[in-house]
Design goal:
Helix content is 42%, strand content 15%. By secondary structure, the chain is an alpha/beta fold. InterPro entries: IolE/XylAMocC-like, TAT_signal, Xyl_isomerase-like_sf, Xyl_isomerase-like_TIM-brl.
Length: 279
């Protein structure tokens, strides 16, 4: 049975508004910091966050996101619809999808053909994990080659981190192999702030070490003991990260939660947090 968009929104509003800026959270700490703010048109959400309800009611969920205020989303598949069908639903809700997660091991020609229909501009490989340095190096070579193909077709290809890229494999960090073994021209970076912090890294340092290559942030929060929570509900100092890297002109701030209790609540909390943040 299709979900009721109105009931989903009412539930999100009732839960989300009360939770956006509780005293003692990062949201409260950031609220009065400065005059910089994220333009609403740069706030996006990774649809993987909403996969459980997109599978049940694609049209209603995208309409609910539009009502929250989203005008951008990052794709992770089209939920059984053709690229043209999915694009039609996005257009109906005045939503664009400038970025999409793909797998470079799939048919790149088909990926590019679909991306042109969907209006994507950036393709992002979201996950790889290998047990040897040789396997990582081989992957990095494939990533650079795929980036060349994407660039020639008018797209940019990126890599999205988790935490394991910061742990040495046979004495070499996969993150270093990726950033040194690919070129800025062919491969950009999408930094997942939760996983970077979870891996013991300072996201600001990662940006400074890769100036000009970081185009997106995935914005999801973390408790002190490592639990994933909605933006503004944990201890990650997003205001500090955004302020210190503002000159990099990050193109999208993408709300995400891998396993939210209520996806639309997460979507609303994330949008409101980023839209109201001052730093």
């Amino acid at each position: 049975m299709a979900l009721s968009r109105r009931s989903m929104l009412l539930g999100a509003a009732a839960t989300g508004v009360a939770a956006v800026a509780l005293p003692g959270t990062a949201a409260a700490a950031d609220a009065s910091r400065g005059r910089l703010r994220i333009p609403r048109e740069k706030i996006s959400i990774q649809l993987y966050t909403l996969r459980s309800i997109l599978e049940k009611d694609l049209e209603g969920t995208l309409s609910a996101l539009a009502d929250i205020g989203y005008r951008r989303v990052e794709l992770a598949g089209t939920y059984g619809r053709s690229a043209a069908e999915f694009k039609s639903i996005l257009d109906k809700n005045h939503i664009k999808a400038p970025s999409t997660h793909i797998n470079i091991g799939d048919d790149l020609n088909q990926i590019i053909a679909n991306a042109k229909i969907l209006g994507n501009q950036k393709l992002v490989h979201p996950y790889s994990n290998y047990g040897t340095a040789a396997e990582w190096k081989a992957f990095v070579s494939r990533l650079e080659d795929a980036g060349k193909v994407a660039r020639k077709a008018g797209f940019t290809l990126g890599y999205h981190n988790h935490d394991h890229e910061f742990r040495p494999v046979e004495g070499q960090r996969p993150w270093d192999l990726i950033t040194r073994g690919t070129t800025r021209r062919n491969v950009h970076l999408q930094i997942d702030l939760f996983w970077a912090v979870h891996g013991g890294e300072d996201p600001v340092r990662l940006v400074y070490e890769n100036c000009g290559r970081v185009l997106h942030y995935h914005v999801k929060d973390r408790t002190a003991d490592g639990q994933m929570v909605d933006p503004g509900k944990g201890v990650i100092d997003f205001g500090k990260i955004f302020r210190r890297t503002w000159h990099e002109r990050i193109q999208e701030f993408i709300v995400e939660h891998d396993n939210p209790a209520d996806p639309l609540v997460t979507a609303k909390i994330g949008f409101d947090y980023l839209a109201n943040l001052r730093f």
